[in-house]
Amino acid sequence: MEKHITAPLKESDIKDLKAGDYVYITGTIYTARDAAHKRMYETIGEHKELPIKMQDTVIYYMGPSPARQGRPIGSAGPTTASRMDKYAPTLLDLGLKGMIGKGKRSQAVKDAIVRNKAVYFAAIGGAGALLSQRIKSSEVIAYDDFGTEAIRRLEVEDFPVIVVIDSEGTDLYEQAAKKYCK
Predict the structure, then answer these.
(1) What pTM did the predictor assign?
(2) 154 within 8 A of 131, measured Cβ to Cβ
(3) What pLDDT tens digit does each residue of the chain (182 aa) get?
(4) 105 burial level (CB within 10 Å; 0-12, 13-18, 19+)
(5) Could you give the number of structural domains in the chain?
(6) What whole-number distance in Å separates Cα of residue 164 and Cα of residue 104?
(7) Which end of the chain is more exposed for a tag (fewer CB within 10 A), N or C?
(8) Exposed (0-12), middle (13-18) or buried (19+): which is 182, by Cβ within 10 Å?
(9) Please, which residues have CB within 8 angstroms of residue 179's CB and are 6 or more apart in sequence?
């Protein structure tokens, strides 16, 4: 099924998403990778305020290449999501509603997705140049000392993703493996 949603996410949009759905996201999303997640996790441990509000937010696990002249961002492909698995349950418990990456997630992340009625999307690895065309603006908003791993606010239009783990915990990767292992 093909669906169009707006970020920040609404609970009603998330509830209607099912593993395997093709989704186009329009609105505001944020980038954060390993180093940014580690620093946010440490900030939470210090009882300090995070640089972005987690409530209803979507985080894209991506570190872009430099932008070419006239473009807001360079190639913008997803990175492996499992590297954020140590930090994701805490962020989900703080209101994070969507994550975009590639690859499988741990059971702890799946449990946190279900507990918090969130969703995990996959973007197509290797298609960073094409994905960047859906990014209308990019602004570093925190951790600029991390260079490409800084947290960025992106404005996206019809950003293409696939629901991998829905809010009920259905995992597309597991479904596909079972289908073909019969």
Answers:
(1) 0.94
(2) no
(3) 899 999 999 999 999 999 999 999 999 999 999 999 999 999 999 999 999 999 999 999 998 887 888 888 888 889 999 999 999 999 999 999 999 999 999 999 999 999 999 999 999 887 888 899 999 999 999 999 998 899 999 999 999 999 999 999 999 998 877 777 76
(4) buried
(5) 1
(6) 9
(7) C
(8) exposed
(9) none
Query: How would DSSP label each residue in the chain?
Result: -EEEEEES--HHHHHH--TT-EEEEEEEEEE--HHHHHHHHHHHHTT---SS--TT-EEE---PPPPPTT-S-S-----BGGGGTTTHHHHHHTT--EEEEBS---HHHHHHHHHTT-EEEE--TT-HHHHHTTEEEEEEEE-GGGGGGSEEEEEEEEEEEEEEE-TT--BHHHHHHHHH--
Q: Are strands 22-31 and 151-165 parallel, antiparallel or unpaired?
A: antiparallel
> By the 8 A CB rule, do 85 and 109 touch?
yes
Whole-angstrom distance, CA of residue 91 vs CA of residue 108: 12
Please give the residue range of the domain that contains residue 145: 2-180
